[in-house]
Write a structure and sequence with these properties.
Layout (H helix, E strand, L loop, with lengths): L4 E2 L3 E2 H31 L4 H30 L1 H18 L6 H15 L18 H30 L1 H21 L12 H4 L9 H21 L5 H8 L1 E2 L1 E2 L2 E2 L8 H22 L6 H25 L3 E2 H28 L6 H23 L7 H35 L1
């Protein structure tokens, strides 16, 4: 009997991980779409303070997976880590509905995220037999799940929060997390059996060693992504503030809600991923597979170009028509698809046996550092002109591209040396 398949010809287990991730991301991005507006409009925080809180929260949400990945690999197993982490996150989202619990709620979500986040994508490789070519596209398919949730979140949570009350939006985010947990529990029969037990129980070797060359490569990739994210993560922070005051949001006889623009990025991921997969597959068939670091460098350059567009628009002066913001998101999303799924897949594929969740957690260390840096960079928004600020973001993305290009050249040189030995 042939293996049942779904979602771009992938195993059904990927569909379960895809949908679980989709609703978890709905909860995360639903809360994030409201967060900076909630702080500045409801809690009356100064912009700089709100930027620091935003950056610190998003950084912590990606720092806790470093510890959570180790706990999943060594103690709980991926399945129990996901169930426990998702339950904690749901509680945190519901706590956001109560203003006095604001900071404890943020901490609760970050703690739950630490157990949940690395344990889900680290199950992807276990769905495939060794050498299965489909695994190379699986992470892009999985990434679509991130963005379906991210697309729905501003439209549902953002609209509820903006029009009916902030706490309605936060409550909807909590319901989304509960839905993701229900899907994961229902789909257990399609998921890898090894996810039920800690890796140390499955490994015959007393100690798992991480190859030095692999560790150095992933560290260099992580540093580059940290620089990139200090610019990229402004989308939910300073770019969101600019959409509120610097963009003419009139369309016909109504005004487009500011949170809706945050749905553009995930919507474009869904629209652009299938043709990009076809393009990359056709190139692979012709023997023109882009090396990971070079592919990621291309993405960083495109994102830098997106911020250059905003700098040019600010240089013209006056409010910017919302169509230009749409074009910005088209460029930003194209660059994102080249760099972020590629990096996640690289970390997951290079993970030694028994360290799957731990290695994926290391990918989120770069996200943690980049989000923290983004919060610090965001404090410059109210201290400089908007045009100069967007130029700075373009420069940071360009710097990340240079770092990735240098890494690609070093990898090429090392490969040639190995071949000559």
């Amino acid at each position: 009997m042939s293996e049942p398949r779904a979602w771009f010809g992938q195993p059904r287990g990927l569909t379960i991980l895809f949908l679980t991730n989709m609703w978890e991301q709905f909860s995360y991005y639903g809360m994030r779409a409201l967060l900076v507006y909630y702080m500045t409009k409801q809690l009356m925080m100064a912009q700089g303070t709100a930027s620091i809180v935003y950056g610190t929260y998003t950084a912590c949400a990606y720092f806790t997976p470093i510890v959570g990945g180790v706990i999943a690999d060594r103690l709980l197993g991926k399945r129990r880590a996901i169930i426990l982490g998702g339950s904690i996150m749901a509680a945190g989202h519901f706590m956001m509905a109560f203003e006095p619990l604001f900071y404890p709620a943020l901490a609760t979500i970050a703690i739950g995220n630490g157990l949940f986040l690395p344990s889900l994508p680290s199950q992807i490789d276990d769905l495939y037999k060794p050498g299965d070519p489909r695994v190379s596209w699986a992470y892009n398919v999985y990434y679509v799940g991130v963005n379906i949730g991210g697309f729905l979140a501003p439209l549902i949570c953002g609209t509820l929060g903006e029009l009916y009350g902030w706490h309605w939006g936060f409550g909807a985010a909590g319901i989304g997390m509960v839905g993701g947990l229900a899907i994961y529990l229902w789909g257990q029969r399609y998921l890898p059996e090894q996810a039920r037990r800690p890796a140390v129980e499955r490994s015959a070797a007393p100690r798992v060693r991480f190859p030095r060359e692999t560790a150095v490569l992933l560290l260099a990739i992580g540093l580059s992504v940290t620089v990139f994210r200090s610019a990229y993560e402004q989308v939910g922070n300073t770019v969101a503030l600019w959409a509120d005051v610097g963009v003419d949001r009139r369309a016909g006889g109504s005004v487009i809600p500011m949170t809706w623009f945050q749905a553009l990025n995930p919507l474009l991921v869904m629209v652009m991923t299938p043709p990009l997969l076809v393009f990359w597959r056709q190139r692979a068939e012709r023997g023109r597979v882009a090396r990971p670091a070079r592919k990621m460098a291309t993405g960083a350059l495109v994102v830098g170009g997106a911020y250059l567009l905003l700098a040019a628009l600010e240089g013209i002066g006056g409010q910017t028509h919302w169509a230009w913001l749409v074009l910005f998101f088209v460029l930003l999303t194209l660059g994102e698809l080249y760099i972020l799924p590629t990096g996640l897949g690289l970390f997951a594929r290079l993970a030694p046996a028994g360290l799957g969740a731990t290695t994926v957690a290391a990918w989120y260390l770069a996200t943690f550092a980049g989000s923290l840096a983004a919060g610090l960079v965001g404090t410059l928004w109210s201290r400089t002109s908007h045009a100069a600020f967007f130029l700075l973001l373009a420069g940071l993305a360009g710097l990340a591209a240079l770092m990735l290009c240098a890494l690609d050249l070093m990898e090429q040189r090392r490969t040639r040396e190995d071949q000559n030995v």
